[in-house]
Structure formats: C-alpha cells, structure tokens
C-alpha cells in the first residue's frame, strides 16, 4: 500500500512518522519547499506519549510534486483549503485511490462532489498533537480514529485502511460515520466556535454561567437539525448522550447539567479553541464546516437555530475585522 499524506501539520506529521515507522511506503506532502527540504535533510522527528524517534521519509513541497497514483491519500489539510487540495489531487489519483478526510466538521459530502463519493472515506479524529517545528511534531494525547464510508458498508479496502491507521491509534470501523462525525461536530460547535468568539480557555469559558447556557442551546438546536436530516447522533465518546441529556427536568436536573459542564471545564481547563488559534494567526477558521454546517442545513429545513446563527455571524465578523475577540461577546449572545 502506497500512502500520500497531504498536509504536514500536527496531525499529518504525526501520522506520517508513526505509519512510516511500521514499514509503510509513505510520502509526506508539505505546503512549501522549505519544510519539505528540512524534512528531507533532517528526517521527521516525533515525540510525546508514543516516545521519541526520528525517521527518514520522502517529503514534497506541493501536491503537484506528489508521486502519482497512491493507493490511499490521508487529507490532513484544514477544511478551509480542503477543496482546493482536492482539485489539485484529481490529476494525480486513480479511480481506485481512497481519500481519507481528516478535517474537523463534516466535509465528506463536499469532498465527494469534487473527488467522487466512491473515493471518500470519513474519519473522526479523537487524539491530539502539536506542531513544534517544520520537522518536529508532538503527540500530546492518545485516543482513537473512527473510519467509515458515508454511503455504503465497509469492505476489504476499508479494513486495510483501518489496519494502516492503527499504527497511530486504535481504529474503529463505523457503520454510520456521518452520525459519529455529527456527534463530534456538536462538541466542536460549542468549544471551538464559542472559544473563537470569546478568546478564553475552556476552563475560563465554562466557569461562566452564560457560556454554559449557550452550550446547552447549541446542543439542542443541533439535535433539532439532526432530526430533520435523519442523522442518528450517538453519544459523544460514549459518555455524552445528547438525547438523554435534556430529558430530566426541574432545578436539580439543571444543576446536574451545569455541574457536568463545570467538571469538563476543569478537566480540560487549558484547552484552547483551534479556531481561536487560527484567528490569532490571521487565518480563516473552519466555521463553515462546524457551526456553519448546522446553520446552513437549518435554513434548508426551515429550522430556527438562533444561538448557532449568532455564533456563526460573530466569527465571520471577527474574520472580517469588524469585531474583536472578547469575553464580553458571550454576554451579547441571546439565549431564548
């Protein structure tokens, strides 16, 4: 199996090193020649919870330099550049090439419109990493991958991809990858999108009652959209059952829900929104594939999602330079 990993950021870099270490034929596609030259000269260094090692592998400075006809492409670029990358891949892949989407949010349908749905494998990424230098990456937390076809049952090809990705973390084959992706999308629409608006770490954010109320509203609205779209949303990480979360009523049930979020905030208090980090670097966020997925589909199905819409609009205003990132933004979001 010949693998091209497109995107030499935190996730792509760690995947490249760990998969190559297990003997796979891996080519890493960077966004520029400078990074590729550094990796080719020094090797790729991986450190963190899986230990530290340096390994040699070929790196290229652009998609156009990629060796044609890989068996599998791990598409590890940001959602904001995903469709451009897919267009540039088209002349270099075969009808049987499988492209694994490692983006946040639900990008599989958009990718399928460019590449053909028969080429696309959905993937939920449930582990963390950090970009330390152009040739050095740290795996900061373990977890799992979930992979699946958006439109058909698993087959031998998907099982081969599962085996290859298990070089990184354990891999589960999902029978409903869109549902699993949507479950994570709801969490990202709370943590990542609201974090971009307020500029706070998760612990600081969830210490605010207004932020917790916003989280509740985002979840409820997202589940209404899922119902309209006939998406069956499983419990996130097997723990947060969105359907059951809001069933109990009364002051004690409300208190338990608030305490649950306070505990999450304390446990992951130093978690910083990836969209916030993008804004701080002067880059666009992935909002269209996170909160924007909820708002656009809500509009199509005639469902009101006022809290998600306010968050989406605020992120767009920040990107356009019309609004500042501020904790005060939380208190401007109206929760009905």
Please explain how this structure is put together.
The chain is an alpha/beta fold. The protein folds into two domains: 174 residues, 3-Layer(aba) Sandwich (Rossmann fold), CATH 3.40.50.720; 154 residues, N-(1-d-carboxylethyl)-l-norvaline Dehydrogenase, domain 2 (Orthogonal Bundle). It is 45% helix and 16% strand. It contains 13 helices and twelve strands. The strands form two sheets. Strands 5-2-1-6-7-8-11-12 form an eight-stranded mixed β-sheet, sandwiched between helices. Strand 3 and strand 4 form a beta hairpin. Helix 6 packs across helix 13 and helix 8 crosses helix 12. The longest helix is centred in the middle third of the chain and has 22 residues. The model has no long low-confidence stretch (mean pLDDT 95).
Features:
single chain; 336 residues; alpha/beta; Rossmann fold; N-(1-d-carboxylethyl)-l-norvaline Dehydrogenase, domain 2; 2 domains; eight-stranded mixed β-sheet; four-stranded mixed β-sheet; 13 helices; 45% helix
The percentage helix is 40-55%
- The first-to-last residue Cα distance is 53 Å
Q: How large, in whole angstroms, is the Cα Rg?
A: 20 Å
Identify the CATH class of the largest domain.
Alpha Beta
Low-confidence stretches: none
What characteristic shape results from the CA principal axes?
A: globular
- SSE string: EHEHEEEEHEHEEEEHEHHHHHHHH
How many distinct domains?
A: 2
The number of helices is 13
Judged by helices, strands and strand pairing, the structural class is alpha/beta
Indicate the proportion of strand residues: 15-25%
Strand order of the largest sheet: 5-2-1-6-7-8-11-12
Per CATH, the architecture of the largest domain is 3-Layer(aba) Sandwich
Q: Report the CATH superfamily of the largest domain.
A: NAD(P)-binding Rossmann-like Domain
Number of strands: 12
What is the name of the CATH topology of the largest domain?
A: Rossmann fold
- Mean pLDDT score: 95
Biggest sheet, in brief? 8 strands, mixed
């Amino acid at each position: 199996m010949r693998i091209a990993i497109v995107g030499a950021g935190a996730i792509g870099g760690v995947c490249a090193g760990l998969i190559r270490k297990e003997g796979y034929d891996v080519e890493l596609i960077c966004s520029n020649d400078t990074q590729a030259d550094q990796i080719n000269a020094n090797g790729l260094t991986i450190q963190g919870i899986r230990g530290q090692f340096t390994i040699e592998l070929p790196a290229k400075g652009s998609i156009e330099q990629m060796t044609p006809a890989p068996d599998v492409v791990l598409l590890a670029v940001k959602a904001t550049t995903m469709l451009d990358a897919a267009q540039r891949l088209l002349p270099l892949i075969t009808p049987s090439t499988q492209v694994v989407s490692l983006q946040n949010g639900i990008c599989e349908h958009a990718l399928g419109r460019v590449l053909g749905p028969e080429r696309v494998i959905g993937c939920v990424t449930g582990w963390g990493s950090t970009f330390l230098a152009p040739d050095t990456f740290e795996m900061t937390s373990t977890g799992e991958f979930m992979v699946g076809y958006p439109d058909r049952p698993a087959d031998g090809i998907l099982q081969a991809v599962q085996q290859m990705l298990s070089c990184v973390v354990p891999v589960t084959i999902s029978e409903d990858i869109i549902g699993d992706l949507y479950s994570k999308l709801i969490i990202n629409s709370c943590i990542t999108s609201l974090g971009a608006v307020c500029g706070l770490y998760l612990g600081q954010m969830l210490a605010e009652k207004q932020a917790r109320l916003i989280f509740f509203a985002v979840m409820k609205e997202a589940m209404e959209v899922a119902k309209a779209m006939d998406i069956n949303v499983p419990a996130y990480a097997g723990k947060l059952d969105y359907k059951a979360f809001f069933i109990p009523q009364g002051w004690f049930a409300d208190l338990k829900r608030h305490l649950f979020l306070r505990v999450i905030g304390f446990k992951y208090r130093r978690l910083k929104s990836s969209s916030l980090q993008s804004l701080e670097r002067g880059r666009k966020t992935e909002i269209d594939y996170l909160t924007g997925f909820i708002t656009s589909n809500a509009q199509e199905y005639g469902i009101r999602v006022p809290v998600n819409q306010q968050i989406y609009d605020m992120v767009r205003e920040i990107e356009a330079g019309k609004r500042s990132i501020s904790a005060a933004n939380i208190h401007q979001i109206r929760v009905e």
